[in-house]
Amino acid sequence: MANDAVAGGALQVAGPADGDDPVRVVLAAYTKDLVDAVEDTLGTFLAAEVDALTEIDAAMGGFAATARDCVLAGGKRVRPTFAYWGWRGALGSAGALRPVLPAFAALELLHTFALVQDDVMDASTTRRGRPTAHVALAARHTEAGHRGDPRRFGEAVAVLIGDLCMVWADRLLAHAALPPDRLLDVRRCYDQMRVETVAGQFLDVLGENDAANWSVDRALRVARYKTASYTVQRPLLFGARLAGVGADAPLTAAYTRYGIAVGEAFQLRDDLLGVYGDPAATGKPAGDDLRTGKPTVLLMLARQLATPAQRRALDRAGQGVGAGDTARLAELVADTGAVDQVELMISGRVTEALTALDTASIDETARTALAGLATAATSRQA
Question: Which domains does the chain have, with CATH numbers?
Fold first, then answer.
């Protein structure tokens, strides 16, 4: 395994080792010190924020500590990683990391906002192998013997945790040591990322309630705005803005093309893992999308490719099916050929992303990292 060093302000990178989960190999080999630096930045920032809220009221301190724990509960730190390589691709090894590190770390606070509130909307019970925030908070409500509905309490406080993380993200982003005009340009990119995330989440919620009027194209639109935008495309552009790259630069066009392709492929892999993934690896139950009838690209393709008899069986998705029925539906989806089609869509998008990297002048180390991440982020098992 290569050893990274934050030397001269930029990561010194060697190639990844073989034989492990590809996402963890690439992230560990290419960005270990970046991830460690992001964790340290978050830890220091959140400690001060929790202390400040504790001074208001002890219960506020407990609430803030729960939000902090949601942020620091793990994860691959994908968004800061793409933002770093977007920045590094523009500046090469000459860029100083410390001034922009708060901006990278802020993306994890934004991610926590999205995760916590998404779990409430999806009624998810586990995340990263642990109870989701609203489930854990409901359990605490019951243990404390409080009045009222524990479920509603848990959901309400989880929404507030998401809101707090959004505010914290803004506050930490403001710590980036950049000229005011540069920071304003970065903020425009960041704001667009937030708007697109909310828009994609709305389409996701709408799709679950209007599945009869959904389509493969609309499911892909959800993937683009809910996932591609704030997971890959906008973090890359965010990093480029931090480096002073303009909106009309060739690098911006290359990052946009790469980011949309990898981001959509990332969500398509999520669709497959949501049905066929190992819960021990994903940290979430398999089959939730089939149980709820969520109109993912996978399910929309299955309906499109199904025979009339298969389509009638697929109509049971979202009708309160049990675990055995979910397994049979998963087999049926595969029998339609939808899984193979999604795999082809993923590989096509990875090829598109790698081609995009050849269309602009990019630091060679960053080019290597982004090529590895394109493959790793879309072939993961978790």
Answer: 5-376 (1.10.600.10)
